[in-house]
Amino acid sequence: MESWRSPNLPALPGTGPAVRLFDTSSQSVVTTKPETTARMYVCGITPYDATHIGHAATYIAFDLLNRAWGDAGHAVHYTQNVTDIDDPLLERAAATGQDWRDVAMRETELFRTDMAALNVIPPTDYIGAVEAIPEVVRRIEDLQALGLVYRVDDDFYLDISADERFGSVANLPREEMIAIFAERGGDPHRPGKRDALDPLLWMAARPGEPHWPASLGAGRPGWHIECVAIGLEHLGFSFDVQGGGSDLAFPHHEMGASQGQLLCQDWPFAKAYVHAGMVHLDGHKMSKSRGNLVFVSKLRESGEDPAAIRLAILAHHYRNDWEWTQECLVAARHRLKLWRHAFDAQAGASGHDVLIQIRTHLSNDLDAPAALAAVDAWVAQSATDKSDESAGSLTRNAVMALLGVHA
Ligand code: 5CA
Ligand code: ZN
């Protein structure tokens, strides 16, 4: 699929430090140690109602990582999928009398426009589930050859317990896994399954639903195998970061890790599993199913500066759950105005010092709020300290290159 245009990335003097990130699997902050090229897979949208502030916050979090790695001297190979065939998309299309393909195309296009407006660096590969069906089928055949696949009626399931490490991404007790699996697209109680937690790999064609021909019989992919097939195809095994919102840790990333490990008979599928917190509205997780949404496109239509939307998001640490409010946006507008004024003035307190501080905070588990506070402090100091004549342009470039804020 086409992705979107790249934002302007000003060059900065020197390089940033190695990036440390909180890894869900080990429940600790780890130092990422990519080879020359850092490899990252971030789960993409299911395009039936794009792009709310929660989505934007998650993709901006991984955009910070992309920028921090680039600043540390790495090339970044970034793969993202689009779940352009899945139950929620079909349900939405049916409920609104639209063709599922039209819904997917329209919402994906809106997502691209929103990501470009928010200065998110596009992925290297932007891959739809539908276009990846041949790879998905090939991976399921490989699992079959390993004797790990069984049928329930005409659907195919994976014997997940064959991976002795199953459970080590989200580290949840079994009862909790079963409960969450049922909430997030799984079918723990389907009769005929060997284990409640076995994931669906291939769903046989249902009357009136889209399906594709395959050796497995006509049907469509299960959810988790989609990201495994796309990740292995484009990044290879044991890439540096598997990312998404915290609602993907289980079952999606847990199931994906086991599937990848079984396919490659190796470990780990990803070196770190990194999860962004959930953005809430009116006390509940912002979600398409609940309908409590603030859309990036609506804010933009109402004349909001995308840089203010991005700053409002960056004021929250990516790992925390937080509540979107009008006040965060008002505060971000105010901050943006102060920053622009200070950058325009050129002379100010040392631009070099603030650059180092932004780099340090970003490399420390993407601590954007601390980076914003460092810029605020520089702005305040620059009201009286004019010792550095080009501080404004250096700080503006640092903010643009590292935080992605066009100030
Ligand atoms: N297509 C799958 C991943 S393969 C999917 O989860 N799509 S999604 O559209 O439901 O979500 C896209 C991304 O946004 C996921 O990483 C999800 O964790 C994240 N996300 C969804 N809602 C929120 C929220 N309220 N706050 C933060 N991130 C969210
Ligand atoms: Zn995914």
Automatic annotation (TrEMBL):
- Coiled coil region boundaries: none
Question: Which EC number(s) does the record attach to this protein?
Answer: 6.3.1.13
Q: Which GO terms describe its biological process?
A: cysteinyl-tRNA aminoacylation; mycothiol biosynthetic process
tRNA synthetases class I catalytic domain residues are 35-332
The reaction(s) catalysed by this protein are: 1D-myo-inositol 2-amino-2-deoxy-alpha-D-glucopyranoside + L-cysteine + ATP = 1D-myo-inositol 2-(L-cysteinylamino)-2-deoxy-alpha-D-glucopyranoside + AMP + diphosphate + H(+)
**Keyword annotations of the record:** ATP-binding, Ligase, Nucleotide-binding
Quote the protein name from its UniProt record. L-cysteine:1D-myo-inositol 2-amino-2-deoxy-alpha-D-glucopyranoside ligase
Primary enzyme class: ligase
List GO molecular-function terms, semicolon-separated.
Answer: ATP binding; cysteine-glucosaminylinositol ligase activity; cysteine-tRNA ligase activity
